[in-house]
Each structure stands twice: as C-alpha cells, then as structure tokens.
C-alpha cells in the first residue's frame, strides 16, 4: 500500500517534469530524476521518517516541476533575459519618444481640421491614443525579443545585441551642450502641437467646440505668436543636427523665450489673447458660468513658463562658453 502511494506521487512528478522535454532527452531525465527521488526517500526512511512523508518532502524539495523542466530543457525562466534586456530598453525608449509624439501630433491635427470635435475631446482622444500606442510598442517589442531569445539562437542575438564599445561612453563635461534625439523630438512635436492648436483656435472652432483663443485677434499678432513658436522648432532641430548647442543658437532661443513671454503677457493683460472663458465654457458645456478667470494669474503662469525657457537658454550659453574656454 505504501509503495503504491509513493510510486503514484513520484510518477506524477516525473511525468510533469518530462512531458515538455524532447524525446531524445526525456527518458534519460526521467530515469535520473526517478533515481534521485528514490535514493533521497530511502535515506529519509533510513533516518526514521515515514515513507509517505519522506516522499512528499523530497518532491517538495525539488520544487515546482515546470521550473525544473525548464532547467532540464535549457529554457529561460524569464520573459527577456539580461543579455537582451538593455537592447530592449533602448529600443523601447527610442520608439516611445519618436512614435508616440508623432501619433499624437497627427491625431491632433487631423481632428482639429477634419472634425467638429471640441478642445476637450481632442485632448482626451490624443491622451488615449498616446497610452494605447505606448502599450502596443512595449508589448510587441517585448514579444519579439522574447521569441528571438528562445528561438533565434546566436545569430538572432548578434542581430539585436551589439557589442559594447567604450567609445560610446558619454562625456560629462560635454553633456550640457549636447542635444539628444529625445529632447529634440519632444520639444519639436509638442511645439508643433501648440502651433496646430493656435491655428485651429484662431480659425474658429465652430459650434460645440471650446473657444479658448480669441479669433478676433489681429492677424499680425497671430503670425507673430506662430513665428516665435516656429523659431523654437528651427533652433531645436539645428542644435540637434550639429550635435550640440552653440552661443548663437542659445542666444536665439533666449530672445525667442523673452519675446514670447512679453508678447503673450501683454496680449493677456490687454484682453486680446483669450475669450471670455467662463461664458464660453457655459455655452459649450451647458453649465452655469459662475466663476471668473484671473488674467494676472494667467499672465504669471505664462511668465513662469517663458522664464524657465529663458533660464535654460542662459544655462546653455554659460555651459557652451565654459566648454569652449577649456
């Protein structure tokens, strides 16, 4: 009776371990594993343990049969191993900072000019698209790397994982002057989104959309605001293309930030930039407009944002000057 119980439990464990192993190695693993279990059980029984308890404790000590099966079969117990993980992270970061902003920009432009969606719907749809795109990028790249690690062998690894080169190490002394691809894409895409939203607002958003910018603003002011935003795009791309900032580019960025701050703050305080937002909000969403908008507070917010851009430009000029003096 005891032997029948012990044999049944051992057989189930051995079968679970070896069922996914190839035919050429499965029988050998089964014999080796069965012999290990029987020897360990005999030693425990000789030490005074109950046979059933000895068998159960032995199998518990061997651990999860699926984990043991993967060890025998040489299959990884992880989704992406350490050899592939750094390459996967680098690729995901690059795709996220390039694909997601482009997708968001295209969505905003398409919905701004091709539909009657209001401002909130456009922003909400863009946020949803950004999340979905990021999830798909992470999932599919992880799946590809996992499949390659398990099936491609050394050739597939050589195609995805490059040999590390010490020349790739960043120079801390030059870090402040360099414009990374991430920085360039982020700044350019979101500035283009801002330009698209300005054009959409000033052209009249139509019925059912939330009018934030005053469409009656003089055309010259509209052109000036858009031009200042476009300057940021040009300067950022130029800095990335040359591999770093220099004093002329940083100076242009500084002038653009200061000019943008002065123009926008003046337009806000003179009540030319924004519509009557409480009234527009009430008419668009059908709710009571029992709140007021503090134009000085808006002006302070704009000044802080433009001031931060100006400080960043000054820091770039300082770092460039120090680097050139060394």
- What structural class should be given to the helix and strand makeup? mainly alpha
**Count of distinct structural domains:** 3
Largest sheet: none
Helix content: over 70%
Number of strands: 0
Helix tally equals: 12
**First-last Cα distance:** 87 Å
H and E string: HHHHHHHHHHHH
**For the CA atoms, what is the radius of gyration?**
32 Å
Shape: elongated
Mean pLDDT: 78
Q: Report the portion of residues in β strands.
A: under 5%
The low-confidence parts are 1-6
Account of the protein in words:
It is a single chain. 73% of the residues lie in helices and 0% in strands. The relative contact order is 0.07. It folds into three domains: 2-73, no CATH class; 78-169, no CATH class; 173-326. The chain has 326 residues and is mainly α.
List the helices and strands and how they pair.
Blueprint lengths: L1 H17 L7 H21 L4 H12 L2 H9 L11 H30 L4 H33 L1 H8 L20 H22 L16 H23 L5 H23 L7 H9 L9 H31 L1
List keywords for this structure.
mainly alpha; 12 helices; 326 residues
Short summary:
This protein is an all-alpha fold.
């Amino acid at each position: 009776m005891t032997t029948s119980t012990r044999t049944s439990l051992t057989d189930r464990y051995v079968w679970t371990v070896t069922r996914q192993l190839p035919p050429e190695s499965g029988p050998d693993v089964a014999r080796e594993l069965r012999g290990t279990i029987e020897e360990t059980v005999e030693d425990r029984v000789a030490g005074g343990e109950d046979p059933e308890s000895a068998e159960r404790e032995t199998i518990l000590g061997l651990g999860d049969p699926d984990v043991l099966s993967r060890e025998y079969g040489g299959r990884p117990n992880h989704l992406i191993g350490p050899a592939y993980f750094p390459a996967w992270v680098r690729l995901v970061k690059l795709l996220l900072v390039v694909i997601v902003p482009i997708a968001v920009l295209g969505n905003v432009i398409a919905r701004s000019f091709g539909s009657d969606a209001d401002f909130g719907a456009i922003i909400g749809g863009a946020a949803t698209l950004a999340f979905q795109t990021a999830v798909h990028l992470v999932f599919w790249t992880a799946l590809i790397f996992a499949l390659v690690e398990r099936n491609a062998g050394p050739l597939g690894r050589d195609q995805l994982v490059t040999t590390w080169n010490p020349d790739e190490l960043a120079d801390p002394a030059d870090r402040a002057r360099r414009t990374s691809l991430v920085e360039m894409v982020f700044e350019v895409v979101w500035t283009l989104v801002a330009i698209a939203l300005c054009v959409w607002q000033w052209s009249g958003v139509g019925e059912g959309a939330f009018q934030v910018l005053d469409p009656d603003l003089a055309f010259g002011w509209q052109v000036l605001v858009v031009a200042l935003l476009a300057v940021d795009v040009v300067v950022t791309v130029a800095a990335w293309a040359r591999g770093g900032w220099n004093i002329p580019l940083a100076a242009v960025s500084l002038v653009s930030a200061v000019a943008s701050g002065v123009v926008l703050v003046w337009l806000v305080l003179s009540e030319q930039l924004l519509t009557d937002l409480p009234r527009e909000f009430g008419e668009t969403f059908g709710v009571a407009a029992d709140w007021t908008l503090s134009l000085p507070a808006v002006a302070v917010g704009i000044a802080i944002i433009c001031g931060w851009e100006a400080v960043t430009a000054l820091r770039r000029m300082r770092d460039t000057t120090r680097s050139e003096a060394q």
